[in-house]
Amino acid sequence: MTKKELQETTVYLKSKGFDNPEVGIVLGTGLGKLVDEIKDPIVAHYNQIPFFPLATVEFHSGKLIFGEIEGKKVVVMQGRFHLYEGYDFIDITYPIRAMHELGIKKLLISNAAGSINLDFKKGDLMLIEDHINLQGGSPLAFKDVGAFGHRFVDMSEPYDVEMRKTIIDAATDENISLQKGVYASVIGPELETKAEYRYLKLIGADAVGMSTVPEVIVANHLSLPVAAISVITDEGDPDNLQPIDIQEIIKVAGEAEPKMITLFKKLIKQL
Ligand code: HPA
């Protein structure tokens, strides 16, 4: 990744009409329907965008969409890149840097996650308050990081306090029950063993998933305020562990999706 490549990416997107988006949004597994809410959408497929990694996993449709939600100009990633697809940390966070280069001022992230905190049930939403990076690397661990910002990025409050408060208030207004907790990121793609679920509980995680943390680290690198919500799609109860089926995860995410859309729309309106 170079500054020049990022600029070429944004020159291409601007030429397609991606004109000064204010908010960037990343949609997780099974959570693509927010795109139906976008007014006057302009679509760029990932494989058409210069220097974007190519989308692989079939249930991610792999599009960057520009348009309006609640009167705000947004750019939405429908489908994201994962380490488990063989990409590296630089690849998977490239779109975050590209959206920042386009001018976004806020970033909203969603994902599907398994619960470690067993008070959280399938279909619940969890506002991420903090995270634990278990992916064995960092998107800031590269030689030229100094050209993009500080190397030793502060992570004392990685999730924007004001955006979190707005989301909590929106959930109260809309009568949506909202859990809050710590998200642990793993590489995957295999799910966790019973022993791993026990370990995750011990170290203080409330939910586990395979994304988000690298994106949040890069947002912090860019001083870009970020908020993230997990949809709990399965329960990691080590004493009663059920085999997990990815189709089931997608189904549960889809069922919980309307709540997430309501919260995101309300947040976007108030940003
Ligand atoms: N573990 C890891 N990633 C996940 C899970 C899980 O249980 N559910 C959805 N993504």
Automatic annotation (TrEMBL):
Domain named Nucleoside phosphorylase: residues: 23-269
InterPro entries assigned: Nucleoside_phosphorylase_d, Nucleoside_phosphorylase_sf, Pur_Nuc_Pase_Ino/Guo-sp, Purine_phosphorylase, Purine_phosphorylase-2_CS
Pathway(s) per entry: Purine metabolism; purine nucleoside salvage
GO molecular function, a single term: purine-nucleoside phosphorylase activity
Subunit composition and interactions: Homotrimer.
Protein's job: The purine nucleoside phosphorylases catalyze the phosphorolytic breakdown of the N-glycosidic bond in the beta-(deoxy)ribonucleoside molecules, with the formation of the corresponding free purine bases and pentose-1-phosphate.
Protein name, per record: Purine nucleoside phosphorylase
Protein source organism: Joostella atrarenae
